[in-house]
Structure formats: structure tokens, C-alpha cells
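Annex B.
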Amino acid sequence: MLRMGNDKLGARICPLVCVCCLLAALVGNGFDVPMTLLEGAVDEGAVCLDGSPPAYHFSPGFGSGMNNWLVHMEGGGWCTNVQDCQSRRDTFRGSSKYMKPLSFSGILGNSQNSNPDFYNWNKVKIRYCDGSSFTGDVDEVDPATKLYFRGAKIWLAVIEELLAKGMNKAENALLSGCSAGGLASILHCDKFGDLLPAGATVKCLSDAGYFINAKDITGTESIKAYYNEVVNTHGSAKNLPSSCTSRMTPSMCFFPQYVVPQMRTSLFILNAAYDAWQIKNILAPSAADPHKTWNDCKLDIKQCSSDQLQIMQDFRSEFLNALAALGNSSARGMFINSCYAHCHQLAKQWEIGFMIEAPFEKLIVHIHVTHHAATSCKPYATIVIGLFKCGTCYLTSTCIHEQLNVQLAECQSPGWGLLLSQLGPRPNKKEIGQH
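Pectin acetylesterase: predicted C-alpha cells.
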């Protein structure tokens, strides 16, 4: 990373000020999808925080996509203790009674033009009403609070319902999620793969779910304490990957950096290095900023001081280091941008990473995105996004000092390609042991 004076920090973090450099001008119209309440799951104990039945939305596949499945998990943070979960219980984050209809767009869209590879797949969105990234599992219910911590049961009940609907015959299957759902896509990835047919191609996509173990601006490990509360309150330990909990305190296994190296199922990570949620809640949480000196900066990064920009730049470096420590694997890929954003894949304006032209089975190389200062901003920069695909990253006119570099093999053919589609099969045990 280039070191520059404080007066040039704004130039180094230009993508934060710009409209996200990686946005492709592709717009997909959303379409309404009815909600299904899983009433039968209540008898199995699979319920939201308030005891109401879990819910999901299902759009059937057709044509060549009839045997392909995309299961997306909704995000929405976590609740850490009884009081926190009680405040969540009587909202759509804790009860299906308050859930409203929603539309599918982005990677769940039905437009062949903007979603050419998933538009005709069976598409599912699992609603999030447990506050634990679908990991909670406490049988007892305190009659005083009437809170149910059953996230893991919700996840399994919905997946079993989908298997009965035809996912047991899936040829290709993708488990995805955003934010807390993106974390869930990592935590449940191998389990999802184990439940699918042996011959199916199964992969996972984590969007804005790579939360790192980092100290806040006071040097306090606040996010570590936060996740410890979540895991203890929800009884999550038994549902976290044993490959991690056998080595570490269970709450540490809420950090993907300690889970991903041992995963058996192909994973693609999509994240902003300046993830807006992590900047606001891991780096500069309210408890670490009693005088609210970060408030304006967190709301509008153009209001950040040079010192705050430097701290954010250091956080970006820490985030990239947490990714680099994973090592290389043909079963793992990533697309990391320098936007100040959180979640990408359901936006009507799609990120560059979601246009697929390659077959679902092709291999991918490990990708590392870096930024460096340049004397002037080119109107566009070519991005090599795989062994076989290229793309174009359009930069805004206000982006004066940045251009995007991707360190990869030479591109061999033009077009937009989704790195996810080129992920290799599950790594063997020997490969897993190398990380």
C-alpha cells in the first residue's frame, strides 16, 4: 500500500467518495413473490423469536433451470441478549406476523437480460426472524420473556421443505446470503452441500458476510464480545462448524476468517473492503465513540477528517490481510471492491461480478483486488476477472487519482464473467490441510 501525506488521503480512498467503481449499468426489474408460512415447522420447534412460523418466498424454475436451485438467506444483524431480542421480537426481524410482501431482483431477478444465468432457476429467499444467522438452538423457553432461540431449526426446516419440493433432484445449487445471511451462507455451506444429491454441483456465495475480528477505534475487542453474547444467548455453539469449534472458542467461529480455510464446499466471497456496516459497528461502534465524533463520517464519508480516513484505510488493509491469510484454493474465489457499501447481489443495479457467461463448472483462480494512486483517472479500466473472462469497470468523472488493478492471469476472451461460475469442486482433505 502506498503511503501518502494526509492531504492526499481523500485521493487514496476515492472509491469511497465516488459512486461505486464496480457498478455496471444493468438494471433488472423486480417481481413480486408470494410468501409461504411453514406452519408445519412449529410442531418441530422451528419458530421465529416470538414463536410464529418461519417463512420463505419461492419462485419456481422453468426451462433449462428447472433442476437448478438458488437459495438466498435474508440478512438483518443479530440480537445479543434477552433485552435486545425482545426489542426485535415484535418486528419483521423477529416474527413472521410482521413480514411484508417483497419482490425478487438482482441475482433473484427473472429478467434474462440482467440475470442471464439465474433468471430461470428455482429461486428461494429464506426470511430472517431469529437474530442468530440461523444458528440458535435452545429448547427451553423462559415464560417471562417468551423468546424462542431456534434459528438452526428454522434453516433445517426450510431446507427440508425445499428438498421435498424438488431440490433433492438438483443438478446445480447455490446457497447465498447478504450480511448476517452472508455469514450464514458460510456457516451452513458444508451442511447445505451434504444435504444435496451426491452428483450435484454445490457452491456458496457470501455477500457482505466476511466480518473480521478487529479492534475498534479505542483498541477494544468489542466485536469479539458482541459475537460471544450472540453465541451464548442463542445456544449457537452446537451448530457452528466443528472444524472450527474443535480448535477455538465457539464465538470465534462467527468470524469467517477462522472457518473458511477448513471448508469443504466451494465458496465465493463478495465484499467491500470498506464495508459500511463494519466501519460503523466494528471499527467505530457507538460505545467506542461517546462524543459522537464519528457520526458525520459514518453517515457521509465526505465528512470524514484526514485522521478518520487514515483509520479507515488501515481497516481496509486489515480486512485484506484477513482475506490473504486464507491462502489460495481452486475451490475459493473472491471479488473485493473499495466501495463504502454493504450488500450487493440484490440491487437492481448489478455489481460487475454477477453476469455469468462461463459454464457453472469451470475452474477459477484466486483473485485479489488492489487499488493504487495514479496521476489521472482513466475513463475506464479493464478488469481481468478469470482465466477466460474480462470486464470493464467504469469510473466516475470525480474519481481523479484511482484506477483499479486486478492481479490475475492474462485475459483470453472478452465479456462479463461471474467468478462464482468458475469455482472448482470441493477441495480434497490434503488441500484443506494446507491452509
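The domain at 27-352 is CATH 3.40.50 (Rossmann fold). The chain has one domain: 27-352. Further annotation is deferred to the next reporting cycle.
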